[in-house]
Amino acid sequence: MSATLMISVSGMRGHVGTDLTPELVARHAAALGAWVRSRGGTRVVIGRDARTSGPMFTLAATAGFQSVGVDVIDVGVAPTPTVQMAVEHHHAGAGLILTASHNPIEWNALKFVGPDGIFLDAESGAAVRRLADEGPPRMGWDGIGTVTTDDDAIARHLDAILALPELDVPAIRARGFHVALDCVRGAGGPTMLALFDRLGVRVSGIHMTPDGRFPHEPEPIPENLGDLAALVRESGADLGMAVDPDVDRLALVDETGTPLGEDYTLALAARAVLDRQPAGAPRVVVANLSTSLVVEDAAVAAGARFVRSPVGEANVARVIVAEGAVVGGEGNGGVILPKLHVGRDAPLAAALILQRLVTSGQRPGELVAAAPRYVIVKAKAPRGGDLTAQYAALRLAFPDGAADDRDGLRLAWPDRWVHVRPSGTEPIVRIIAEAPTAALANDLVARARAAG
Description:
This protein is α/β, with parallel strands linked by helices. It has helices at 22-38, 54-67, 80-89, 122-134, 153-162, 169-175, 188-198, 226-235, 263-275, 293-301, 313-323, 346-360, 364-369, 388-397, 438-451, and strands at 5-8, 11-15, 43-48, 71-77, 94-98, 107-113, 147-149, 178-182, 202-206, 239-243, 250-253, 284-288, 305-309, 327-330, 334-336, 375-382, 402-404, 409-413, 416-422, 428-435.
């Protein structure tokens, strides 16, 4: 692993033209295809975000798949959750999504999806990497896979969202919401506009063209939402929404133009789901170890049991399945509703946020003001080798904290926590802390740095 090639459980990401090349993409697609064939599968689904390298890597991946004898179903430029759902719809043996998600413009990535629509786990991901290292078995002239397209994947996705009992579509339409929208010139523009049209939402949009030429840093965090905040104020929108380039994360800006922080997306969406559960239905919410206490507070306030998982969508998804959770996700704006599919989904999240506003009769800022407030501080540190010694020092520095070592080390108290873990997407160590005030959160980060 180099500074520009990050290998994770379910894929890899890197700088286009340096570590991430068509040759690498073709080889790993062939390996994924060979893994599918070894399990009796015959077809794969491929989709991508709007990055400029996407068409090139789609050609390379398609050739790799065909070379090992699997048939390819191409959904084109589409949200990541759309591709995940297409894998299940077509009963495919796997899926490949070409997207670097929130990474800057020079990056792209391969994300491997299993037949259940969930990103590959560690065992399956390792098997694919072994096949890539060893060289997957290729087919002769008479065994080459075919290629077809699926032009209906996005429409099926939206149909499934709008059919959910968690949504009262007529009530949403009756409210006549006005939403300011920033799609950062990623894959989300056409999908989000189609969703809002069907929900009777008036849209003031910026950066809607899906050409992959991001006008600002694409991660939907508060410091990158200045254009959207200004648009909310100028247009008088009821709220602002921003999606990342592959449309699995949603961030919110309230009616005053104030970014709310991504954790509120999951908190509000989870409450929307819980409010519409029938009597006696399961009430379990899952979020990862770095998710804000605002989500836990929202779950508990609605009478739900709250469970934490290691960071990473695949980890959250599998805990959701194991716990029989009704909703879950990550505090980065990723909402998972297993009734729809077990993956983060920004169009779903947008619809649930509108549902929460309908049910509550309140504005976004009012909902946030009524809940306990916390401050999250996120920091980075250089990544060295083994972090075992750092974790031991952290335990000594915080002897009264409840420790969770399933993913790095998280130390928690009733109203605050600090989490130190190696990043899976960048060559760094992440230090995240949350507390009732910025001073307390910054103190936790400083003490964690000092211990390391």
